[in-house]
Amino acid sequence: MTSPARSGHHGPSTGRPPTDQERPARVWSVDEHLEDVLGRIRPMDPIEVPILDAQGCVLAEDVTVAVALPPFDNSSMDGYAVRAADVAEADADRPVILEVVGDIAAGAGTLPHVGAGSCARIMTGAPLPPGADAVVPVEWTDGGTGEGPVDGMRAHSDDPAGSGGLVQVYRPAKPGAHVRTRGGDARAGELALALGTVLGPPQIGLLAAVGRPTVKVRPRPRVVVLSTGSELVQPGEEPGDGRINDSNSFALTAAARAAGAVAYRVGSVADDAETLRATVEDHLVRADLVVTSGGVSVGAYDVVKEALEGVEFRRLAMQPGKPQGFGLVGPDRVPLCALPGNPVSAYVSFEVFVRPVIRALMGLEPARRETVRAVVDADLASLPGKRQFLRARHTPPAPGECTGTVTPVGGHGSHLVKALAHADALIVVPEETTEVPAGTEVDVLLLG
Ligand SMILES: Nc1nc2c(c(=O)[nH]1)N[C@H]1C(S)=C(S)[C@@H](COP(=O)(O)OP(=O)(O)OC[C@H]3O[C@@H](n4cnc5c(N)ncnc54)[C@H](O)[C@@H]3O)O[C@H]1N2
Ligand code: MOO
């Protein structure tokens, strides 16, 4: 880097210190920029949402068990609720014969009393009736048929008499056998899920099981995505001379959704500072994060830099993704990530910076995706002083091996959208590395 003191061009021959414009712009490392951006992100304020809308979100309260799970002693098998003492001597050759005093279906409210020498036919999940202390599965009985062991019960509609009569029991059951006891899963007052838990399907099931229709979480951020560029048309429109389809607003909206956000695609805005400023302002009301693409380089029509007050533009030691903007905009200081327009640059920038921002807004660990080591199967060249993210396909380790392989897809060009779409990973080449011979182990960021 040429220092202004020696450049002559910016020559401070007067001995005065260089102005900001004269000073060569600082180049930020990937990590410095990410840390700076994340340092300015506050997680979303918690809100109460229906439990299904909480999927993937971070719990913002401790959830306690209101009523024990299970809430009552119940049967784990279709069979007969018995007194264990009655069937202690039961045997295939000398079955114990019990009187069936009724049926207990799951959900039953009134329960028959099971006295000595009697039993009640019971279904899985049905409450254990008073007097009984064990359940004999129907397969250990004659099901009331008097014709030896059965595989199951006959439907009540086909055989209403099955809820009465006599049943032969061929095997003993210990006290508590096939009984799921009240509170055996969770006791009333116990912590069901702790604040900070990420809610996946089983956790949502538990919230329902403990009777919660809604829950307090950090919500998914609403992300407004817009692309800039007078050359852009929307897919389906006639491109015309010099114009191309806007792919970034689609890829970035999809990426924001995949990262957990509720994303809204505005589409493209022409390279006109006033239009862009007005469009961003219009959408701030519905945004927890704004993501723009394009217009951040050094061209005469790179209007994002001109239009967005409060956004700082930087050069980063990375490729692709060198120009980046970030700031807090509008009266509510909504975070805005201004990404470069080249499609690969925009997508890689999203992976490296925006995805962590979305995760931080949700109160999730902002860490990037899983990184694995893999052996690259081609020679790679990388720019000195830049962290390079190369599109690639990853093959997981073969059985018995620890490392997989990775094959570069396409080349360095930041316009190669097809290659990007055929990649499932990014090879990360460190700043200090310029050559990576085939056979070297490299870091690979796995794209979802
Ligand atoms: N003289 C210099 N020129 C460039 C530099 C530089 O340092 N000095 N940096 C290059 C790098 S690196 C990048 S990355 C790009 C970033 O440019 P902008 O963010 O200003 O993006 P645009 O100029 O608007 O577009 C770049 C490229 O991408 C296409 N594009 C833009 N938006 C979309 C979209 N929504 N869908 C599909 N394709 C899009 C656009 O047509 C251009 O081809 O600057 C380099 N130049
Ligand atoms: O950084 Mo640009 O993103 O190299 O193509």
From TrEMBL:
<keyword id="KW-0808">Transferase</keyword>
<dbReference type="InterPro" id="IPR005111">
    <property type="entry name" value="MoeA_C_domain_IV"/>
</dbReference>
<dbReference type="Pfam" id="PF03453">
    <property type="entry name" value="MoeA_N"/>
</dbReference>
<comment type="similarity">
    <text>Belongs to the MoeA family.</text>
</comment>
<feature type="domain" description="MoaB/Mog">
    <location>
        <begin position="224"/>
        <end position="360"/>
    </location>
</feature>
<dbReference type="InterPro" id="IPR005110">
    <property type="entry name" value="MoeA_linker/N"/>
</dbReference>
<keyword id="KW-0460">Magnesium</keyword>
<keyword id="KW-0501">Molybdenum cofactor biosynthesis</keyword>
<dbReference type="InterPro" id="IPR001453">
    <property type="entry name" value="MoaB/Mog_dom"/>
</dbReference>
<dbReference type="InterPro" id="IPR036135">
    <property type="entry name" value="MoeA_linker/N_sf"/>
</dbReference>
<keyword id="KW-0479">Metal-binding</keyword>
<dbReference type="InterPro" id="IPR038987">
    <property type="entry name" value="MoeA-like"/>
</dbReference>
<comment type="pathway">
    <text>Cofactor biosynthesis; molybdopterin biosynthesis.</text>
</comment>
<feature type="region of interest" description="Disordered">
    <location>
        <begin position="1"/>
        <end position="25"/>
    </location>
</feature>
<dbReference type="InterPro" id="IPR036688">
    <property type="entry name" value="MoeA_C_domain_IV_sf"/>
</dbReference>
<keyword id="KW-0500">Molybdenum</keyword>
<dbReference type="Pfam" id="PF00994">
    <property type="entry name" value="MoCF_biosynth"/>
</dbReference>
<protein>
    <recommendedName>
        <fullName>Molybdopterin molybdenumtransferase</fullName>
        <ecNumber>2.10.1.1</ecNumber>
    </recommendedName>
</protein>
<dbReference type="Pfam" id="PF03454">
    <property type="entry name" value="MoeA_C"/>
</dbReference>
<comment type="function">
    <text>Catalyzes the insertion of molybdate into adenylated molybdopterin with the concomitant release of AMP.</text>
</comment>
<dbReference type="InterPro" id="IPR036425">
    <property type="entry name" value="MoaB/Mog-like_dom_sf"/>
</dbReference>
